[in-house]
């Protein structure tokens, strides 16, 4: 009987050792996997470059061609300064000479009618090669704008759409700031609904108004005209966005978003992505801070001359989206202000 009992104990001990060995093996694999993923995410993470000295200046249609200093860069600790500007319109541009005119005609018509003398337009030119900067200055004169209403900033080294938007917003003077694509694909007068949403917060609560090109929203006034291939691309990207955390916004990539000052200072000083997927990070940072937001249907029509390479840029956007989400989860991207604000609002 004793040998039998000893055998059972030996077998039980052996089972425990095997179980522990398997557990340690699994833990080791998990740690190795985490280390591998962390290393890959770290390798693909992005750091925005600092602006060059001349990039913090602008030119305007004053016939002198002189450079003027932009207002101080907005930081997380900045206090709102009333410049008597209602709306700052930021238009990122890269080789947009042929398409910019429509956007400026429509936006200036609306702004002159509704905010005359109380708006500014920041053209952030991403080192265009087609004379976009000169065209913008000529257009300002053609539209009869006084100097300094339209300000043209030249980025000496390319940063991408997100980098241009971020640079413009961090130097904006408006109570509300909106960025819009240079092609004029979105009907600019739709901004009325954005302003109404912002006015409800009285610039006290950080707020984001998000344009949506999806006609399936509750308000069906918006009419979307898009190619089949772009619909497929948007669906794939939207699926990834949903999986990685932005589940209450139907159209994260619409180039028509408005922010009040409180939202600008809590998001854009900390933005990492300067390429196409920057919109996702903007909304992610807003979500981390429980910001007030609303998705608003807009009239939108696909325009010729898109700078997106469907194959290349779709892959890059998917990669950047995954890296961005994992980088925040793994604390590679850190934003202490987000954690503090979220706790304060809880």
TrEMBL record:
It holds the Pfam family Glycos_transf_2. It is found in: Endoplasmic reticulum membrane. It is a single-pass membrane protein. One of its GO terms (molecular function) is dolichyl-phosphate beta-glucosyltransferase activity. GO terms for cellular component: endoplasmic reticulum membrane. It comes from the Eukaryota. The chain crosses the membrane at residues 22-44. It is an enzyme of class 2 (transferase). Its main location: endoplasmic reticulum. It catalyses: a di-trans,poly-cis-dolichyl phosphate + UDP-alpha-D-glucose = a di-trans,poly-cis-dolichyl beta-D-glucosyl phosphate + UDP. Pathway: Protein modification; protein glycosylation. PANTHER family: DOLICHYL-PHOSPHATE BETA-GLUCOSYLTRANSFERASE, GLYCOSYL TRANSFERASE. Belongs to the glycosyltransferase 2 family. This is dolichyl-phosphate beta-glucosyltransferase.
């Amino acid at each position: 009987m004793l040998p039998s009992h000893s055998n059972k104990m030996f077998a039980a001990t052996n089972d425990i050792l095997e179980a522990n060995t398997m557990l340690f093996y699994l833990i080791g694999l998990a740690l190795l996997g985490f280390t591998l993923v962390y290393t890959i995410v770290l390798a693909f993470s992005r750091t925005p470059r600092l602006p060059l000295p001349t990039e913090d200046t602008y030119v305007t249609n004053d016939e002198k061609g002189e450079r003027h200093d932009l207002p101080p860069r907005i930081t997380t600790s900045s206090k709102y300064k009333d410049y008597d500007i209602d709306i700052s319109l930021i238009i990122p541009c890269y080789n947009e000479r042929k398409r910019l005119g429509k956007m400026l005609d429509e936006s200036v018509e609306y702004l002159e009618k509704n905010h005359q003398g109380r708006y500014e337009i920041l053209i952030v030119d991403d080192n265009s090669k087609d004379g976009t900067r000169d065209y913008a200055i000529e257009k300002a004169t053609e539209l009869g704008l006084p100097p300094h209403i339209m300000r043209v900033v030249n980025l000496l080294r390319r940063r991408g759409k997100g980098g241009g938007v971020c640079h413009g917003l961090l130097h904006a003077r408006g109570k509300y700031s909106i960025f819009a694509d240079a092609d004029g694909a979105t009907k600019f007068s739709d901004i009325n609904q954005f302003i109404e949403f912002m006015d409800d917060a009285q610039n006290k609560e950080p707020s984001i108004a998000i344009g949506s090109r999806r006609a399936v929203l509750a308000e069906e006034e918006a009419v979307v005209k898009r190619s089949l291939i772009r619909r497929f691309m948007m669906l794939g990207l939207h699926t990834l966005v949903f999986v990685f955390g932005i589940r209450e916004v139907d159209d994260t990539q619409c180039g028509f978003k408005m922010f009040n000052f409180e939202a600008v200072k809590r998001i854009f000083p900390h933005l990492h992505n300067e390429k196409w997927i920057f919109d996702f990070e903007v909304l992610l940072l807003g979500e981390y801070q429980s910001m007030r937001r609303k998705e608003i249907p807009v009239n939108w029509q696909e325009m010729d001359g898109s700078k997106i390479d469907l194959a290349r840029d779709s892959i890059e956007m998917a990669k950047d989206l995954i890296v961005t989400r994992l980088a925040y989860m793994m604390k590679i991207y850190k934003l202490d202000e987000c954690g503090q604000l979220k706790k304060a609002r809880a």
